[in-house]
């Protein structure tokens, strides 16, 4: 998966791209992308292909985890700002509690499909979540793919709690 900066650089290299195409906002890109749904599910991927809330795929337990994740009540859509945080990603970002619930749900299901989805979402995509916590002053321990994630943060416990981005844990 490309970072926002890598994708932006790639777009600059495409010959004959118009100035208008260069100005596509992350929210616009999100609306343009096609839907990718994990096989055997209707809710696991970008968007959903379900006919209604109760419509689940053949991997219904895993699909129920994804549906619950999709209905997280605290989100920041691509290109939007909330809690003084701007989501510069092409994907919606969720409150860390929703990602924690999703991870726990997938691990409880403990199937091949839930394992693949967990590894894809938490390890491969390398998304971030947000929560209110003491100000982060650094990273004590790095992990994940090539040490790209902070797995243990250093906090200023004397500072005022505020919303911040955090790396999601590995699956």
TrEMBL record:
Transmembrane segments: none annotated. Its cofactor is Ca(2+). It is found in: Secreted. Its main location: secreted. The keyword Glycoprotein does not apply. GO terms for molecular function: metal ion binding; phospholipase A2 activity. PROSITE patterns: PA2_HIS. This is Phospholipase A2.
């Amino acid at each position: 998966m490309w970072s926002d900066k890598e994708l932006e650089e790639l777009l600059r290299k495409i010959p004959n791209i118009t100035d208008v195409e260069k100005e596509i906002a992350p929210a616009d890109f999100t609306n343009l992308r096609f839907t990718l749904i994990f096989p055997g599910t209707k809710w696991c991927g970008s968007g959903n292909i379900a006919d209604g809330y109760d419509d689940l795929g053949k991997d219904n337990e895993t699909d129920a985890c994804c549906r619950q994740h999709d209905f997280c009540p605290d989100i920041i859509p691509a290109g939007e700002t909330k809690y003084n945080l701007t989501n510069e990603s092409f994907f919606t970002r969720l409150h860390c509690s929703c990602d924690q619930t999703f991870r726990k749900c997938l691990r409880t299901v403990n199937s091949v499909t839930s394992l693949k989805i967990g590894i894809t979402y938490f390890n491969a995509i390398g998304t971030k979540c947000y929560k209110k916590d003491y100000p982060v002053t650094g990273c004590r321990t790095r992990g994940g793919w090539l040490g790209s994630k902070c797995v243990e943060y250093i906090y200023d416990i004397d500072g005022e709690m505020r919303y911040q981005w955090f790396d999601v844990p590995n699956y």
